[in-house]
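Holo prediction — nicotinamide-adenine-dinucleotide.
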Amino acid sequence: MTEHLNHFIEGASFEASDGRRINLVNPVTEQVYGSSAQGTTEDVDRAVAAAHRQLEGGAWSQLDGAQRGQLLSKLADLVERDTELLADMDANAIGRSPIEPRRMDLPNAIANLRAAAGWANQLEGRTIPTGGYFGTKTLSYTVREPVGVVGAIVPWNSPLMITVWKLAALLAAGCTVVIKPSEETPQSALHLAVLAQEAGFPDGVINVVTGYGNEVGRALCEHPHVAKISFTGSPEAGREIQRTAGVLFKRVALELGGKSPQIVFDDASFDDALRGCALGLFANQGQVCAAGSRILVHRSIADRFGAALADAAQTVNVGDPRQPGVQMGPVAKKAQFDRVNRYIQLGIDQGASLLAGGVSTPERGWFVRPTIFTNANNTMAIAQDEIFGPVGTLITFDSEEEAIALANDSSYGLAATVWTTDLVRAHRVAAAVKAGAVGINCWSPLDANLPWGGVKTSGIGREGGFAGAVAYTEEKVITVLLPS
Ligand code: NAD
């Protein structure tokens, strides 16, 4: 079937203003299977105008928090109804096994929408005691107002879940949105917008403009009626967005990359740590921002752990993810395939040894073999750069202090995992590691009620949890003079 996808603006489908289109390519077959509208500045103008109208006296602006919450609940039900369809859309677009989004992304997205339904009615202001105004008493209170139109810019690795992280929170806060999905994965965002229409959201509250980052994304960042950019993607694009949006004083939230350490102490449960490290390396072909791609292992167990991890890598069944028994599909796109192979070659050139995998040369499809490096050090490119593929780098340590120093010797700080049965050590290391989230004996736990985000190059701001919804509001203070 050939997919012909268009923008979704104010409840209707639109071609790009100049008719241009972007091909959608299947990563398994490398065949074009459809196309999406290649958005223009004009398309962005149209979508932002629709979103702005809803905030400035439109039906959306008249709803209270409880009513917004009801709509969010309905949307959650519809996403739940269409779980398989949405999971398949995301999986097929990037060659991922649909089992992963069915088990992880969709339940998380539904939980986010349900949690946000509650937050919508809890965005309260404060009453603040003050010293009065030139001798006259005053009453000062604050209200939380929606920040405005949000430009939500999303990557391709977990498109629906990441779109919903933004959408649920900003709708709870009363904002409207123009979503710019990744050029590889527009399907689920478009379907989500249609579901929102079915749920009863007024047309214009949720708009989707498909296209490239340097056209649609940039136009959103430069648009005077976009108040906030919520971006998830690479540090390179994040830097540019920060630069563009900063000049215009737009609010910016940046969820960027990572090179997250998994610290395996000699007292860890070997099997649990092995399973967790394999999951953190190979889930979604390693195309996960929190991928635990730096495996820091205590020297006394490093050989055994490396051999077991290599064994796990070699037994991963790589192939067409729609075939039974296949655990890992190709990486999402040609550029990613080239990038991952380039880093594997760089690892070899810089002196690391392969325990499993290596440079891949498949006949067709962007398949990469799960790859494990050993004899590596933390200064190598394979230890410092985000590869975003199924590649792990094993580095040994001798002491807890050294493990912490290695974990923190990174420009990133998104996530970290500590594997140990020593409770005190677990908390000591969790406190010392510079990261937005630390898992103790579990890799990357996600929950609708937990904040998510990074430090250093991993980003600015937090998504998720109640604070995630608050981040889409401005606190306005109102003071009234109370003469006696
Ligand atoms: P990317 O930066 O290439 O693209 C992300 C989105 O930004 C896409 O929609 C793209 O079209 C758009 N874009 C690109 N350049 C832009 C620009 N100059 N202005 C505006 N928009 C622009 O990233 P990607 O390859 O799609 O995703 C992979 C990256 O995303 C990795 O670094 C990964 O770690 C990160 N990521 C982070 C999180 C997190 O929660 N921290 C989650 C998922 C992915």
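READOUT: The longest strand covers residues 138-146.
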